Amino acid sequence: MKILISACLLGASCRYDGRSVPLDGELLVMLAKSHTLIPVCPEIYGGLPTPRPPAEITHDCVINAEGHDVTEAYRRGAEEALRMAKLFGCEAAILKEKSPSCGVGRIYDGSFSRTLTEGNGITARLLLEAGIKVYGESEIEKLI
Predict the structure, then answer these.
(1) Are 132 and 84 in contact (CB under 8 A)?
(2) Which residues 6+ apart lie within 8 Å of 131 measured at CB?
(3) Rounded mean pLDDT of 73-102?
(4) Res 31 pLDDT > 90
């Protein structure tokens, strides 16, 4: 199966803080042996720099810690990630949890207090609406 995957989970330094959060090497090797992984970073695709101020979703808008509305960049990036998924025929996605772009199931609540709430990031929502199964990185074993 072809799987879209957050590039930061593969070691690309594209997170808001300029870092990555690579998956456990053994799990990643097992995943890559049975699937084709297509790395994406919707925030970069949307035109945001690295590093960039952290952002959270508030009332369906993505606002960064400096108070700027960056929703349009997140939407552009989500649309590009979906385009990539369709182009490569991806049936699933493994995305970075809690992210305003990639978070699935739970995201930060917009208060910048590290409080989680139920919800999906902009990219996760778009992929789910398109019928692509979306998993957070803690669910990777479901795909091995």
Answers:
(1) no
(2) none
(3) 98
(4) yes
Which CATH number characterizes residue 13's domain? 3.40.50
> Phi and psi of 51, rounded to 5°?
-75, 170
Q: Which residue range(s) make up the domain with 44? A: 2-53+71-96+120-143
CA–CA distance, 123 with 69 (Å, rounded to integer): 17
What pTM, to 2 d.p., does this model score? 0.95
Are the C-beta atoms of residues 106 and 98 closer than 8 Å to each other? yes
Q: Is residue 110 part of a domain?
A: no
Q: What total number of domains does the chain contain?
A: 1
Q: ∠ at Cα 125 (101, 144), nearest 5°?
A: 85
Please give the pLDDT value at position 131.
98
